Amino acid sequence: MPYTDNVPQSGQTLGTTQPLIQSNFSIITTAQSVNHVAYDDADQGKHKFLQMPEQGSAPTTAANEGALYTKVDTGTPATTQLFYRNESAGTEQQLTGFGGSIPSILTGTFSVTSSFTAITSALPQNVYGYIIFWKTTSPYQVQMNYFFTDTTKAHGYSSRIVTNGSSDDNAVELENDPAADLKLYGKRDDFGSFTANWRLHYWKQ
User: Fold this and answer.
1) Mapping DSSP to helix (H, G, I), strand (E, B) and coil, where does residue 29 land?
2) Which terminal residue of the chain has fewer beta carbons within 10 Å of its beta carbon, N or C?
3) Contact 64, 52 (CB under 8 A)
4) For residue 83, what are the CA distances in angstroms to 54, 86, 159, 205?
């Protein structure tokens, strides 16, 4: 049965409206149980998680209040992401996904040789971030380099540190004038080939 508002009304007896009132309580219990701990259970009434339907635009906020909501972002492909709007219909901030404060993360491995070779697949246009390289075999160096993309290229800049000028330096050098394909390219230091793990974080510019 559907939820029935305004019962009991003036002149109605409890006997007459009892089925409607019982139905209303049942509907309220069912609705409350969605994403909430059930009545009479430990932590009753608390949220298990939140599900928020997409909004077409940022909701209006009054003074001294903020709004947390979901909306489609401007990434490719566009996906549902989490947003926050400041008080008084203020600034809208994307919190997750492409363009959000939480970075997009890619991982992989890279076989480093003496020639510049693609490390990543094509990255989105107009992002910036950093890539970390590390080895799981001795010597266990870790290195972090920075990059950004424009509309056609990924530009990488290396914080290349030579420890002692020998083959155990294992530095990865990023190319800063790469091909027009939005991929990061890298090559080895002056000594030996090796395989490095990498983890890349990026944000929308």
Assistant:
1) helix
2) N
3) no
4) 10, 10, 34, 17
